[in-house]
Specification:
The structure holds 2 protein chains of 2 kinds. Chain A is mainly beta. Chain A has 2 helices and 17 strands. In chain B, the strands form 7 sheets. Chain B has an 8-stranded antiparallel sheet. The chains are: A mainly beta, B alpha+beta. At the A-B interface, strand 1, strand 2, strand 5, strand 6 and strand 7 of A face helix 8, strand 15, helix 12, strand 21 and helix 13 of B.
């Protein structure tokens, strides 16, 4: 099985052979990958170099004390135009992190935004919080109108990027 | 202990050491919270919202009376700076671990604290000495002292509702926003205005005062690294504070405390300008979040001293008895996303690995599993590192951050990891603008290829050990068959 991986700023092509060996590009790695805390922490030793990896969020990985983003698409997803793994990053859903009042919407549908642009202001925990775009893209949908009280997790804005 | 989270645990630890039994209170969502498990007794106080639980004076005092408490420790936040609470506790015949209501009233309202400091001969920033009546008055004062100015709630603390106003055009919107936030956060719209000191450091002085008129200062803390005027990192000694400035700040803090008839632990906050001049900001009439850095360099237990003072004992040492050794730095681990403007995050923590080892102290309210409520402050834990000098303390903090894992909610840890490797911080060159000048936009670390490959291999192993169903209701049999077919 082949995987296209984006780990932090690096793109990696990794293959797992039927015998369970790892190939990075065309290089065979002497790698041991052992789960130490079920579902959460792995110990990885590659050619004697010891690493520890913890899965701390949906796409966030702790690696040797640093936190990076990790996106893995397998060959099915790659074949389907990365419909699987990478589709999630092409579609950004801005959701309310907590219940609050949607005070302002700073964008309109169809607007082009850059990563870091303020999209909406949510008043919650007695503070006004600006929710920002993680990546550049186009505002595909504004799901909630200004002045609406929203629940935690409510979809506010959808952004599509190439 | 009229609080929750790490500070309730902090207070209970000292009580346990002193052989003092503790009573916890908890809101409905905190039934299994760490502070409930650490106490000798625990009683429900109401529904999740703080207004319906941790902020209700009458049931808190009633529980303390009923359970035979001698004293109430308010921690920080919640009712810790509520003069009515202090009065109610004293009125019930219990000791309040903090200054009495009259002192809190004199210092809690910021313009009154400014008047008190100015009369005691301590410099304050140019601005209003009474709460502002209206926007027109604010405009007149701003014209007099000159822009930029700072507009802030007269009643509140914790940096909420503060607005920087850089020109006359910005004053109207800022006035309306600050009035709104002051009303919703503190129930009082009163604002004050003072000249903004640019590129200032936020330096504060820890004080202890007993009921017999003795006041000592224990050293300073630089708390300049803030977001939304709220602290993220604190350290002592302050990198920009020399022996003469330290002495001047200590003397000024003692003057304000003495003038106010202060009792118990408190903190005088100052802004220090790049030229070394300083102004008094306000007095925090409680134990501060960042008190452990002072404890590590002085070797004192501030909670134990608070309890002694609250029972009327004199301070066991004078100013000459205060010694400081080494350097300490505190990192606030909060449930906030540093890549999304430090937006608070609720959620469920399902894995925690806390650091330990030489020079590391972890004051933590973390547990796994733990649901992080959005009803309260997002502070989860404080990682405090001590070293014989600042570089050692930083190296230990960096090493300890590397050991720390919190999974389930985004935390401030990636920010701390960045700061501890950042050259300006290492050189002690920072002020209150640090977050906007150094973490805008936020940056993820550039990890080595070996680390990236390791993360990728673990991620693939995880996918393969827990394949996602191809259709939602696929049976494990058809799933594994399909996996095999695709290999």
């Amino acid at each position: 099985m082949r995987y296209a991986v984006r780990a932090g700023d690096r793109d990696l092509a990794i293959e797992v052979t039927p015998e369970g060996r790892f190939l990075v590009g065309d290089r065979v790695l002497a790698a041991q990958v052992v789960e130490t805390v079920p579902g959460r922490i792995w110990s990885v030793v590659i050619d004697g170099a010891a690493h520890e990896v913890a899965f701390v969020g949906a796409d966030r990985v702790w690696i040797d004390g640093d936190e990076i983003t990790l996106d893995i698409a397998d060959e099915r997803a790659v074949a389907a135009g990365r419909a699987g793994g990478r589709a999630a990053s092409a579609r950004q859903e801005i959701r309310a992190p907590m219940p609050g009042l949607l005070k302002r919407v700073h964008v309109i549908e169809g607007a082009t935004v850059n990563g870091g642009d303020a999209l909406v202001t949510l008043e919650a925990m007695k503070m006004e919080n600006e929710l920002r775009a993680a990546h550049a893209g186009t505002v595909a949908q504004i799901a909630v109108a200004e002045g609406t009280k929203v629940e935690g997790g409510a979809l506010l804005i959808v952004i599509r990027s190439e | 202990v009229a609080n929750r989270g790490e500070i309730a645990l902090r207070v209970m630890r000292t009580c346990r050491e002193l052989g003092i039994a503790t009573v916890a209170v908890y809101s409905d969502i905190d039934r299994t919270a760490p502070h409930v498990r650490a106490a000798d007794e625990a009683y429900p106080i109401g529904p999740a919202p703080a207004m319906a639980s941790y902020l209700r004076i009458e049931p808190l005092v009633a529980i303390a009376k009923r359970t035979g408490c001698d004293a109430i420790h308010p921690g920080y936040g919640f009712l810790s700076e509520n003069a009515d609470f202090a009065d109610a506790v004293a009125g019930a015949g219990l000791a309040f671990v903090g200054p009495p209501g009259r002192v809190q009233r004199a210092l809690g309202e910021k313009t009154s604290a400014r008047r008190l400091a100015a009369e005691a001969g301590v410099p304050v920033a140019e601005g209003t000495m009474q709460p502002l009546r209206d926007e027109a008055e604010a405009r007149a004062v701003a014209e007099r002292v000159g822009y930029p100015v700072l507009l802030k709630p007269a009643g509140g603390g914790g940096g909420k509702g503060m607005r920087v106003v850089r020109s006359a055009a910005e004053l109207g919107p800022a006035w309306r926003a600050a009035t709104g936030e002051a009303t919703s956060a503190f129930g009082a719209p009163a604002l004050l205005l003072e000249r903004l000191i640019e590129h200032a450091r936020h330096v504060e002085v820890q004080l202890l005062a007993d009921a017999h008129g003795s006041v000592v200062w224990l050293g300073e803390r630089d708390c300049s690294i803030q977001r939304r005027h709220q602290k993220l990192i604190e350290e002592t000694p302050g990198p920009g504070v020399d022996e003469s400035l330290r002495g001047a700040l200590g003397a000024a803090a003692v003057k304000v405390a003495s003038a106010a008839g202060y009792v118990n632990a408190g903190t005088a906050e100052f802004l220090v300008a790049p030229d070394g001049t300083f102004v008094f900001l306000e007095m925090n009439t409680r134990l501060q979040v960042e008190h452990p850095v002072t404890e590590l360099v002085t070797g004192l237990d501030l909670v134990a001293l608070q309890l002694r003072i609250a029972t009327g004992e004199p301070l066991p040492f004078g100013q000459d008895g205060v010694t400081r050794r080494g350097a300490a730095i505190e990192l606030r681990i909060t449930a906030e996303d540093p890549f999304a403007g430090f937006l608070p995050q609720g959620g469920r923590i399902d894995l925690v690995r806390e650091p330990s080892g030489p020079g590391i102290r972890m004051d933590s309210g973390l547990a796994a599993p733990l649901t992080v409520p959005t009803e309260y402050d997002p502070l989860l834990a404080k990682l405090i590192a001590w070293g014989p000098d600042r570089p050692t303390a930083i190296a230990r903090a960096r090493r300890a951050v590397r050991e720390t894992i919190v999974a389930g909610v985004p935390t401030s840890l990636p920010f701390h990891s960045f700061v501890l490797r950042e050259p300006d911080f290492a050189a002690g060159r920072y002020d209150t603008d640090y977050v906007s000048t150094h973490w805008s936009p936020p940056t993820r670390p550039d990890v080595r290829e070996g680390a990236a490959v390791a993360a990728a291999l673990a991620g693939i192993a995880r996918l393969r050990s827990r394949p996602r169903p191809i259709v939602a209701d696929a049976s494990p049999w058809s799933r594994s068959a399909r996996e095999d077919m695709l290999r």
